[in-house]
Amino acid sequence: MSTENFDAVDIIRIKRDRGTLSPAQIDWAIDAYTRGVIAEEQMAALNMAILLNGMDRSEISQWTTAMINSGERMDFSSLRNSDGSVKLTTDKHSTGGVGDKITLPLAPLVAVFGVAVPQLSGRGLGHTGGTLDKLEAISGWRAELSNEAMMTQLSEVGAVICAAGAGLAPADKKLYALRDVTGTVEAIPLIASSIMSKKIAEGTGALVLDVKVGSGAFMKTRENALELARTMVNLGTDAGVHTVALLTNMDTPLGLTAGNAIEVEESIEILAGGGPADVVELTIALATEMLAGAGIRDVDVAAALKDGRAMDKWRAMISAQGGDNDAPLPVAKESDVVYAPADGVLTGLDAMDVGVAAWRLGAGRARREDPVQAGAGVRLHAKPGDVVRRGQPLATMLTDTPERFERARPLLESAATIAPMGSRPEMSLILDRIAAT
Ligand code: URA
User: Is 194 a pocket residue for ligand 1 (Cβ < 6 Å)?
Assistant: First the structure.
């Protein structure tokens, strides 16, 4: 006779029939799935019922708590400032976009103001790049740190970007792999609980969510992005984490680079006080929110980029993880150029097309175990709003394997929309701000 408290089929039927699961049923479902008592096909059916019928706020919160409880929780409460006071922690999560290298300048920038930034990151899959893949372009840099090494770096440098350990929300790893192959990644309750279980288990005191919306994002419509943002802000708030979300445009890539080494290069330009205006704007906006979440207001964030303090932190952060700040970044062996087909104003540069082109050139991976090319990617020479002339370079393709050019070129050609002179594209970057309700 089974000693289990519930039956998987009963739980699937409740969600199939638009019912509400009790906290005990949710705790059991996540625990039983992690133990292998609920079969993969049963969890797939439950995920599909959730995708179709949704979950209410208390169900999503319980689902998230159950995933957190499947693993360890990090604890930064022992971190101290030099005067003995508790060091506050703040973190950022982006739902993923093309050219999104913001974490690289952001973590050291925020650490300048004495707040610790424990940035647990991932590798890329598909058309969006992964923060760890980018940093691994730096000679010697190590993504894997023990919890002790992470604490030491947070106390001595103030910022760390490293791989999330396997112990954080292990139920999510199993569930995410299943969602990936059963068409259930897009369920907002499942996305929100997946992201927030890892962020809450990570133990940060404040969190800023950069929820991308547009062609290169998970969420294609503003309505869906708002729902995801509100759901995540509520989850963070209910768990005692000061959480705010910015809704930001991902119809066009961020900055002028999409790849690994070339995104590190652009991040270093930002830290040197230069770089593309959109990357600077978003880095400052997110840093301001992260600091406000930790109670720090009225500081001049932009000045710390201009005067070299953020760069000093970056160099300390990179060398603490074995990276050689002075080694040249890898360069792709081959390059080829895509030219503008007409005179006019560039009114669109489709983020998804550019992201897939960078991926096809070797910057991203199709399967988790694939390697990435550090030097591969796309360097853009024009952004929406710029006037372009027929025959002028629009983008440079970079790869070690030139046979990839012909698979990337059509995407970059179709990515660009060129309208008659005088046209003005819609170019807002920060679309909305969502705080707790
Ligand atoms: N990122 C995650 O961590 N989980 C999701 O479900 C989607 C994006």
Answer: yes
Model confidence, pTM: 0.95
Tell me the H-state helices in 18-56.
Answer: 23-35, 40-53
User: Among this protein's residues, is 93 annotated catalytic?
Assistant: yes
How many helical (H) and strand (E) elements, i.e. helices and strands, does the chain have?
Answer: 16, 13
Annotated catalytic residue: which of 194, 197, 215, 267?
194
Identity of the residue numbered 272: A
C-alpha distances (whole Å) from 140 to each of 107, 147, 321 are 20, 20, 8
Is a pLDDT exceeding 70 seen at residue 231? yes
What CATH number is associated with residue 183?
A: 3.40.1030.10
Same-domain pairing of 354 and 307:
no
Give me the catalytic one of 15, 87, 93, 409: 93
Q: Are residues 198 and 288 in the same domain?
A: yes
User: How far, in Å, CA of 257 to CA of 101, rounded?
Assistant: 9
Residue 369 inside a domain? The answer is: yes
* E strand or H helix at 90: strand 90-94
| pLDDT of the residue at 125 | 67
**Residue having the nearest C-alpha atom to atom 8 of ligand 1:** 191
Do residue 312 and residue 379 come from a single domain? no
347 is in which domain, residue-wise?
Answer: 334-419
Structural domain includes residue 35: no
Confidence at 3, pLDDT banded by 50, 70, 90 = confident
Task: Give the domain CATH number at 378.
Answer: 3.90.1170.30
Dihedral angle of Cα 311, 313, 315, 318, to the nearest 10 degrees = -130
Query: Which residues lie closer than 8 Å to 144 by C-beta, 6 or more apart?
Result: 162, 163
Is 310:274 a contact under the CB 8 Å cutoff? no
pLDDT (0 to 100) of residue 63: 98
Q: Give tens-digit pLDDT for 147-194.
A: 999 999 999 999 999 998 888 999 999 999 899 899 998 899 999 999
User: Rounded to the nearest whole angstrom, what is the distance from the C-alpha of residue 193 to the centroid of ligand 1?
Assistant: 8
Task: Please check whether residues 344 and 300 belong to one and the same domain.
Answer: no
Amino acid at 97: G
State the catalytic residue, choosing from 100, 133, 172, 278.
172
Tokens representing residue 136 in the block? 């691994």
Q: pLDDT band for 1, please (50, 70, 90 cuts).
A: low
Asked if 163 and 143 count as a contact pair (C-beta separation under 8 A), the reply is yes
Q: Which of 301, 326, 351 is the endpoint of a domain? A: 326
Q: Is 195 in the pocket of ligand 1 (CB under 6 A)?
A: yes
Domain count for the chain, please give it. 2
Give the residues across from 387 on adjacent strands: 345
Three-state DSSP class for residue 251: coil
